[in-house]
From TrEMBL:
<feature type="transmembrane region" description="Helical">
    <location>
        <begin position="20"/>
        <end position="39"/>
    </location>
</feature>
<feature type="transmembrane region" description="Helical">
    <location>
        <begin position="226"/>
        <end position="250"/>
    </location>
</feature>
<feature type="transmembrane region" description="Helical">
    <location>
        <begin position="191"/>
        <end position="220"/>
    </location>
</feature>
<keyword id="KW-1133">Transmembrane helix</keyword>
<feature type="transmembrane region" description="Helical">
    <location>
        <begin position="164"/>
        <end position="184"/>
    </location>
</feature>
<dbReference type="GO" id="GO:0016874">
    <property type="term" value="F:ligase activity"/>
</dbReference>
<feature type="transmembrane region" description="Helical">
    <location>
        <begin position="78"/>
        <end position="96"/>
    </location>
</feature>
<protein>
    <submittedName>
        <fullName>O-antigen ligase domain-containing protein</fullName>
    </submittedName>
</protein>
<feature type="transmembrane region" description="Helical">
    <location>
        <begin position="371"/>
        <end position="398"/>
    </location>
</feature>
<feature type="transmembrane region" description="Helical">
    <location>
        <begin position="338"/>
        <end position="359"/>
    </location>
</feature>
<keyword id="KW-0812">Transmembrane</keyword>
<feature type="transmembrane region" description="Helical">
    <location>
        <begin position="108"/>
        <end position="129"/>
    </location>
</feature>
<feature type="domain" description="O-antigen ligase-related">
    <location>
        <begin position="191"/>
        <end position="355"/>
    </location>
</feature>
<dbReference type="Pfam" id="PF04932">
    <property type="entry name" value="Wzy_C"/>
</dbReference>
<keyword id="KW-0472">Membrane</keyword>
<feature type="transmembrane region" description="Helical">
    <location>
        <begin position="51"/>
        <end position="72"/>
    </location>
</feature>
<dbReference type="InterPro" id="IPR007016">
    <property type="entry name" value="O-antigen_ligase-rel_domated"/>
</dbReference>
Length: 426
């Protein structure tokens, strides 16, 4: 089940599945695997005490709060997604521990990643040709088979948004790069191609995630800080100088190209996505300041959303997405930031439990694991779902020791994924 979920990691917005905007296919086999795992003799580790405490607190808190709000549906949805997230974490933790001992599982993971990234790379190449050469929109009909929302002249792979495609490339790419280090060199092909497509998607979200991850990594580790600061400076220069030059050289236009003019005040008033990604988490902080100890209750971020939006950010109502959330679907408002979500809904009590869990992943971790954790922190700066597959996948691998250094003998015995093996799979 886990390998199946890894094989469909890049599908997050299939047009024939309607239950949420973000609807990753990988969630279903992962959740089924978590149920099957109940029949195995597998228990949480000591560091998971904080996570279990957070889940118990959040569920009980939400159920108590819903009696006062009279909105049981929001509480049930919150509990359901939280339990799915917990289940996905257990599976990733279990697999992460097994990978340390069994090279066959690592080989199966390498095969699954090939299967996961080959179709989006193929579609991404078509989107690349369509965006910069043909410019006819021919790739939209093909992309529409895999994604409900299709962008004109954008590289979005098989995802509902270019930013979601970047999430899969960054998280899946990190796992691939580590497997390459262990000897699975054929993964260099999907890694290089997917990263190249991500760069050419000109997704401001993707670039910001990398920059924030580097900052978090510098904070988390004390080794090679000088080198990492140089890498961070080079990455900033790449985004601030080379990307705008490339956009101008290729004569790329559109709302996403204007973001690289770096006029934040203008973007906040003219760009719907920038407004939502910045203001919605900020509203969560305002809610936390109003209810600092226990928060609004799990699933009830929306409860005071409109009041704060109308009072402080009413200019955003000109955006259709914001207007629809405020007037048509007020209970659909989300913070777009997991940390802001936890603060606003669970207060300082829940936030400390959640941060306590994440902090346990830092202790005794290898530099690779610390960068994976930094990437997790960065990914949820603009994502707030407890059923965030990529987040739990990386956290589980970190806690399970997947990214820790392998003994030399074990590493030497790692099998290489050969072309012959790929032919047998086909």
């Amino acid at each position: 089940m886990f390998m199946l979920s890894l094989s469909v990691l890049t599908y997050d917005s299939l047009p024939f599945i309607h239950f949420s905007v973000y609807r990753p296919v990988a969630m279903f086999p992962l959740f089924l695997a978590s149920i099957l795992l109940l029949f195995e003799k597998f228990r949480f580790g000591k560091g998971d005490f904080f996570l279990i405490g957070f889940c118990v607190y959040s569920v009980c808190h939400s159920l108590v709060i819903c009696m006062g709000y009279g909105s049981m549906g929001a509480s049930m949805k919150h509990i359901f997604t939280l339990m799915i997230g917990l289940g996905m974490y257990r599976v990733a933790l279990y697999i992460g521990q097994l990978c340390k001992e069994d090279p066959k599982i690592r080989r199966m993971m390498a095969i699954s990643l090939w299967i996961a990234f080959l179709p989006p790379i193929a579609i991404g190449c078509l989107q690349l040709v369509d965006s910069f050469i043909v410019k006819s929109g021919f790739s939209m009909s093909i992309t529409g088979l895999f994604s409900e929302k299709v962008y004109l002249r954008r590289i979005q792979l098989l995802s509902g948004e270019p930013s979601w495609a970047a999430i899969h490339v960054l998280s899946g790419g990190l796992i691939m790069s580590y497997l390459i280090r262990l000897g699975y060199r054929s993964l260099r092909i999907p890694l290089v191609l997917s990263v190249l497509l991500m760069v050419l998607s000109f997704s401001a979200y993707a670039y910001s995630v990398i920059l924030i991850a580097l900052i978090f990594y510098i904070v988390l580790t004390s080794k090679n800080r000088g080198r990492m600061l140089l890498i961070l400076g080079g990455t900033v220069a790449f985004v601030a100088v080379f990307i705008p030059f490339l956009i101008d050289y290729l004569h790329i236009s559109g709302y996403f190209a204007k973001r690289f003019q770096f006029d934040f005040q203008a973007m906040l008033k003219t760009d719907n996505s920038v407004f939502v990604r910045f203001v919605f988490p900020l509203i969560g902080v305002y809610e936390f300041l109003r209810h600092p100890v226990f928060g609004l209750g799990g699933g009830y971020y929306f409860y005071e959303f409109n009041a704060i939006l109308f009072e402080k950010f009413s200019y955003g109502l000109k955006f259709k997405e914001v207007y629809d959330i405020a007037y048509v679907m007020p209970d659909s408002a989300t913070s777009r930031n997991l940390f802001a979500k936890v603060l606003s809904e669970e207060g300082i009590v829940g936030f400390m439990l959640f941060i306590g869990f994440l902090s346990t992943a830092v202790k005794g971790s290898s530099p690779y694991a610390k960068f994976a954790l930094a990437l997790c922190f960065s990914l949820v700066m603009n994502f707030d779902s407890y059923s965030f597959v990529n987040f739990w996948l990386l956290i589980g691998f970190i806690r399970g020791g997947f990214f820790n250094e392998m003994p030399a003998a074990r590493e030497a015995g790692t099998e290489t994924l050969s072309t012959k093996g790929m032919k047998q799979i086909a």
